[in-house]
Specification:
five-stranded mixed barrel, 7 helices
Length: about 290
């Protein structure tokens, strides 16, 4: 949690320049980048990210979801333990001085997205119901996160190749161009304890009752201010968005390659027969899914 997100932004929505008028754009950014209505973290998708560059300007580029750092490539066990659990960062741990997040707390970024997906369990149903969550204001979400550019020496790369682990090589191949040496950054999304609405949706699983660090975009831009203090960071990390400030609509099953029966996009509403209102986990009729 959260491992599913949307990047399907309608033309009528707000602009990044509304919140970041000094925004600079990576000249290599593909302006025809295909915006998907659903991507999943485990695929390490390449998505739009904003961070402060060396000149202190907000900078739009693309990075891979799922932070990768050097210690993860120590061996197969290290990769399994850390690389597959670094898609999200818990807000409660960031300012803990013993935390790995504390050491990179200056490497802050914003994830540009219209909304995220979360799954809800209904008593007796075999299939969880996915919801698309976005700001009630219909503004874009700028979700705080951390980024990292992995730097490996030639001997490190050769050592990883020699280990010859499928998953390590696959991950490395997504962030390192062996021909040009170009590195693609990686990032993790910050999550926190869920508000009441999100508790009723994310009501099951080992990380239940969590949600991304939602806030209005005009609040979120403070996160990438190069002069942000630890006290200011603490205030942002502790922010809980009111339930009324987010909307959540049930959608068709998102983790499938099957076409949606009504032909609509994955983030559009879907009517699940018997779906009870939020806060009630018993179905409205005895129909199993």
């Amino acid at each position: 949690m959260c491992l599913d997100i949307s990047f399907k932004i309608d033309e009528s929505e707000d602009s990044l320049f509304d919140y970041l008028p000094q925004l600079k754009i990576d000249p290599q950014l593909d302006i025809n980048f295909e915006m998907n209505s659903h991507v999943q973290a485990h695929n390490r998708p390449r998505t739009n990210i904003i961070y402060s560059n060396t000149e202190g300007d907000p900078y739009l580029t693309q990075m891979r979801w799922g932070m990768l750092t050097k210690y993860m490539f120590k061996d197969v066990d290290s990769f399994k333990m850390y690389a597959n659990n670094n898609y999200n960062a818990r807000a409660e741990k960031v300012l803990n001085k013993s935390s790995s997040w504390y050491r990179i707390r200056t490497q802050r970024c914003l994830i540009d997205t219209p909304g995220i997906y979360e799954h809800r369990a209904v008593t007796g149903w075999k299939t969880k119901v996915p919801y698309f969550i976005r700001l009630a204001s219909n503004k874009r979400m700028l979700i705080p996160g951390f980024y990292h550019f992995l730097v490996l020496a030639e001997e490190d790369i050769e050592r990883i190749k020699a280990i010859n682990d499928k998953y390590m090589l696959e991950a490395l191949g997504k962030i390192l161009n062996l021909e040009t040496g170009e590195i693609t950054g990686t990032y993790s999304m910050i999550t926190r304890a869920a508000n009441e609405k999100m508790c009723n949706i994310h009501n099951d699983g080992p990380n239940k009752h969590r949600m991304p660090l939602f806030m209005q975009p005009e609040q979120a831009v403070k996160w990438i201010d190069p002069d942000l203090t630890d006290d200011e960071m603490k205030a942002i990390l502790g922010y809980e968005i009111p339930s009324a400030d987010i909307t959540a609509v049930p959608v068709w099953t998102i983790r499938t390659t099957k076409p949606r029966p009504d032909g609509r996009l994955k983030h559009e509403p879907f009517n699940w027969a018997g779906l009870p209102p939020l806060g009630v986990d018993e179905p409205l009729m005895n129909e199993l899914f």
